[in-house]
Automatic annotation (TrEMBL):
GO biological process: DNA integration; DNA recombination
Pfam families documented for this protein: Phage_integrase
Domain called Tyr recombinase: residue spans: 10-197
Species of provenance: Salinirubellus salinus
Protein name: Site-specific integrase
UniProt-listed InterPro entries: DNA_brk_join_enz, Integrase-like_cat_sf, Integrase_catalytic
Top-level taxon of origin: Archaea
Keywords assigned: DNA recombination, Plasmid
Entry's Gene Ontology molecular function annotations: DNA binding
Length: 198
């Protein structure tokens, strides 16, 4: 794992993209819908309580046709009513979700993931427990939570890929810098090495 921080009241974990793939694979062995939930959190940055909102009706190609967006109704970090935002979705995630939707006969207005927030959180814990069985450091996996997928997504894009903060605030649903600042974690050793080698 990139890093585990257990200095506060809540243990925080950051997953490498390869580790996220392991979590998705474990989820898929239980049910394809679980894999979709992991992808929405770990590859698109949705919160656990946002996963059961979008479906085919909320997915669209950008105006220039160069990327996918999915509309999400989520937390308003300034308080008040939930807020709509467009979340970027990669081509490969879109392809998997579209195939899932077709094969599961989801109607246009139906959500892809049809489960409660508590079920989505439980799926993450169960998948992490399965991954831990074959992991070199299994105790680290017992701390992985649904929010760690969003945290890993944000940190990967902000720190490793150096996506600008304004873009991340827009697609991640953060209303101000203070809300996104905790996601600006330390870079990984791999990133430091690549950057310093020039």
């Amino acid at each position: 794992m990139v890093r585990v921080d257990d200095s506060g009241e809540v243990t925080k974990c950051w997953l490498e993209p390869e580790e996220l793939s392991l979590l998705e694979e474990a989820a898929a062995r239980a049910d394809w819908q679980r894999e979709i939930a992991m992808m929405l959190m770990g590859r698109c940055g949705l919160r656990a309580d946002e996963v059961n909102y979008p479906g085919d009706a909320e997915l669209r190609r950008s105006g220039k046709g160069d990327c996918w967006f999915v509309e999400v109704r989520g937390k308003n970090t300034q308080g008040g009513d939930p807020k709509l935002r467009d979340v970027w979705m990669s081509d490969d995630v879109q392809a998997v979700i579209r195939r899932f939707s077709r094969e599961r006969d989801r109607e246009t207005g139906e959500a892809w993931v049809q489960a409660s927030n508590s079920s989505v959180r439980r799926w993450v814990k169960e998948s992490a427990k399965e991954v831990a069985q074959d992991a070199s450091q299994p105790d680290r996996w017992r701390h992985v939570s649904s929010h760690d997928l969003r945290r890993s997504w944000a940190t990967y894009h902000l720190v490793e890929r150096q996506v600008d903060v304004r873009t991340m605030m827009s697609i991640g649903g953060w209303s101000d810098y203070s809300a996104i600042e905790p996601y600006l974690a330390e870079p990984t050793e791999r990133h430091i090495g690549a950057t310093m080698r020039g």
